[in-house]
Amino acid sequence: MSGAKPIFIAVVGVGGVGKAFLGQLEQLRKRLQQQNAPIDIRLILVRRSNKQILQKEWEGLDIQNVLTQLDSSTEPVPPFEETVDHLTTAPGNVVLVDNTSSDTLAATYPSVLHKGISIVTPNKKAFSSTHDLWTSIFSSAANPTPLHSSPSPKPTAHPGYIFHESTVGAGLPVLSTLADLLATGDQITKIEGVFSGTMSFLFNAFMPSLSPTEGGTFSAEVTKAKNLGYTEPDTRDDLNGLDVARKLTILARLVGLPIASPNAFPVRSLIPQELESCTSGDDFLQKLPDYDARMHELKTAAAAEGKLVRFVGSIDVVAAEVKVGLERFEPSHPIAALKGSDNIINLYTKRYGSNPLIIQGAGAGAEVTAMGVTADLLRVIRLLH
Amino acid sequence: MSGAKPIFIAVVGVGGVGKAFLGQLEQLRKRLQQQNAPIDIRLILVRRSNKQILQKEWEGLDIQNVLTQLDSSTEPVPPFEETVDHLTTAPGNVVLVDNTSSDTLAATYPSVLHKGISIVTPNKKAFSSTHDLWTSIFSSAANPTPLHSSPSPKPTAHPGYIFHESTVGAGLPVLSTLADLLATGDQITKIEGVFSGTMSFLFNAFMPSLSPTEGGTFSAEVTKAKNLGYTEPDTRDDLNGLDVARKLTILARLVGLPIASPNAFPVRSLIPQELESCTSGDDFLQKLPDYDARMHELKTAAAAEGKLVRFVGSIDVVAAEVKVGLERFEPSHPIAALKGSDNIINLYTKRYGSNPLIIQGAGAGAEVTAMGVTADLLRVIRLLH
User: Fold this and answer.
1) Hey, is the C-beta of B74 within 8 angstroms of any chain A C-beta?
2) Which residues of A are known to be catalytic?
């Protein structure tokens, strides 16, 4: 590895995605070493809420044992800003990998980028909160417009790059494809799809495409999905539609709509109004069966038309309309025919005409989410190299 | 544009795709200029079989009028090698855009790359002919392995980069997605899909998914497809399966199978053996109805199982088996439910499990093919910048 250029990796967040990312990082490091690549990947920071290991000699932590090390660490945890300032003294380029879903961390991105540190992240908060934060992030980055694949003027101060493929559809190539379409001059007219693995699983069970009448009651399917680990610990965090609203906010901004926040457009919540005051997720799940009749009615109405109910998000770019809610589809429509917990994203463009460019597959899960992050890391490495 | 770094573009081939590419290039040039980007795109060569315009002062041709200029040009057309040698004297990086499907041009790629010129192309010949040519191309390029998205040692002599997204699925993000999957350490287990817009259109008409019995006879649908402009001028060039075999050769090599040539695995030709000696495409089309009974039998057999016949290519990576032929699918299968002349590519990987990553949409057409070429050009510009 003599002569190989070091690239310093700082990881924050070591939950499911963080752990999977560290596994992929170690694989990548080994592969580059085997190939005698002129790049030397060095993990120099691992941090979670109450623990941190910082490799102050810039030599690279042992990725395979770093989590055990972190568990037993008694190192004091300095404020994040202090750690960032230390990172700026690294003898080479630094990439921050934010595997959290923290608002606080997202708010520091502009300053991190200004300091020349690049960021790759699946954290939706940074790109789907206020429009001000979004503008601030992209005006601080070396890829200053959201059309991040088009070459653009680099300010002389060398700010960092930022990529966030995994914020929509996990590792599915959604944002990179959108960037290529825009950069080559295509016009996006509409985006429509199923953007939540949980909602996909839930509706494929509630009203299966091949046997629409065989699904259980809505509350029974919610409970089943929770027991199988397909939902957030509190199912209301899926049913309120906010996760999908955040993804649509990200996509809508990328195609040029200045969406103020994920609350700035109609989002259908599947939490009955009467249950909005429930104090716990368990309490909510217990009372949900009382409202099954409403969802059953929607199912019956769709079935009467020979259609299926699905929870979809859509962006009508031409009319500048974004919405999240229940829609009906013919059984042969790709959105209705979706399997398991897959996501599907239909990109309607001028060049592609009436048949959209479709990207489909698992849109959640630690390994595929981490894959999007690792692919973004490789993008940054190529740009920095 | 003062201070902007020039990038010199040399275009060979100005048919449908070439013309669409020139349109996109002009759009891109204008957009970069408007954004004050530090890149100055200059078209310096336009060449077709019997005409050529070379801008010897490196100032950039007027893209909008260049085809009229080419038509009326009386400039002598030097051998391609001579023109390449001249391009190497450009005061900056040169990208050759090969919009032909020429074998001869493909054979020059190794030497073009060696001379420091990058290549972007939808020309399948270079990547699907002999394995020797393929090896020679990638050992000459700055991205020396087919896993072209992984950072790799750059030889000191600065060879060119090569990208060829549009050789499979036109502008659909097939090769870039495959490259990301491989570069991040996923394992591809199987690739299956409909890789020909013509075959897609033909079988969707011959045996429609929503009304399998309503299609016309095979020969009638072939004639209809030809009259609508969905086939090659000689329909046998589609029906022999070679186009699909070339695309599978490209994909199989990318996932590590050392396929010798597109003839090295089973390819089902839809040309009846008795008609292989037809002297013209018209003669062939006239006699094709005599063999409709065979295709009708296949259709009936599939229908008896409640399935649909489709013309698919598949690569079983684990068993190292590649084949092109007719397969049966349930109507709800994404391959059967395909619309119009769309392509569909199913990537089965270790991380994605039993539900593949699916990419679907128009896989032919001048604008979408040119889009893949333009996106590749942007990739090269980012790497060179």
Assistant:
1) no
2) 247
Residues in chain B: 385
Q: What CA–CA distance (Å, rounded) separates A305 from A288?
A: 27
Starting at the earlier edge strand, list the strands of the sheet with B321-329: A321-329, A308-316, A188-194, A342-349, A357-362, B357-362, B342-349, B188-194, B308-316, B321-329
Report yes or no: A367 and A18 within 8 Å, Cβ to Cβ.
no
Residue B1 lies in a domain: no
CA distance to partner chain B, nearest, from residue A218 (Å): 24
**Residue of B40, B180, B187 best to disrupt the A interface, most CBs of A under 10 A:** B180
Annotated binding site of A: 13-18, 100, 124, 232
Q: Do B150 and A378 touch (CB under 8 A)?
A: yes
Instruction: Kindly report, residue by residue over A190-232, the tens digit of the pLDDT.
Output: 999 999 999 999 999 999 988 888 899 999 999 999 999 899 9
Residues A208, A216: Cα–Cα separation, whole Å: 10
Tens digit of each residue's pLDDT (9 = 90 or more) over B251-303: 999 999 999 999 999 999 999 999 999 999 999 999 999 999 999 999 999 99
Residue B68 lies in domain: 7-170+368-384
**Residue among A352, A325, A308 at smallest CA distance from B332:** A308
Same domain for A161 and A125: yes
pLDDT score recorded for residue B138: 93
Dihedral (Cα; B333, B335, B338, B340), 10-degree rounding:
-150
What helix, strand, coil percent values describe chain B, rounded to 5?
40, 20, 40
- Binding site annotation covers B100? yes
Which of A186, A365, A381 is facing B151, going by the closest CB pair? A381
Task: Please answer whether residues A241 and A219 qualify as being in contact, where contact means their C-beta atoms are separated by less than 8 angstroms.
Answer: no
Kindly report the length of chain A. Answer: 385
Same domain flag for A120 and A145: yes
CA dihedral for A101, A103, A104, A106, sign (positive or negative): positive
Distance (Å, rounded) from C-alpha B268 to C-alpha B324?
6
User: Does B68 lie in the same domain as B163?
Assistant: yes
Across the interface, whether the CB atoms of A37 and B151 are under 8 A apart is answered yes
Residue ranges at the known binding site of A for L-homoserine: 232
Q: Do A357 and B383 touch (CB under 8 A)?
A: no
Domain holding B345: CATH number? 3.30.360.10
